[in-house]
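# step 3/5: fold
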Amino acid sequence: MENQQFHLTDAQFSELLLGTTPSAVQAHLDACSQCSEEADRVSAALGSFEQQSRLWAERRAASQPILASHRQPAFPWLYRPQAWTAAALTIALAAAIAVTVRNDITVRDDHRRAVPQQIAIVGSAPTVSPATLKADNELLSAIDGELRADQSTPATMYGLTAASRGTPARTPKRIANE
């Protein structure tokens, strides 16, 4: 009868409500009517609470609108404004390049059509006097000498030198047709 002197502690009641009932607690409940009634009353209260909770959840769910399940779209990038902006800019850039290239080709074609083709007319060469030939050769020699003396040519500015391949520079000479 020692089990009747001491009643179940709060920890033992908690274990009982959680479903982990040690054999000593079950033996005490079988022997002590006061603890057994207390356990039944708490168990009934919890059962009522569980039932009321379910009813409340069911009523709340019934009052809420039913929402369609949210499905992931097949192409989520279609719903992003940045993707559309990037696509539009790409298309505009491609169109601008195509128009520019086409205009450039058209301008070149128009230029080719606009430039008259030069036709070489083969005929007899004009007669040049020996005095004119001599004056022309002297002028060309003087220009050649000045160019050789001038060290600020574009080639020397970049450290390039004109290497001769063992052949002296020739000045063009006209031959008179006699």
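# step 4/5: annotate
The CA atoms of residues 59 and 117 lie 95 Å apart.
# step 5/5: archive (pending)
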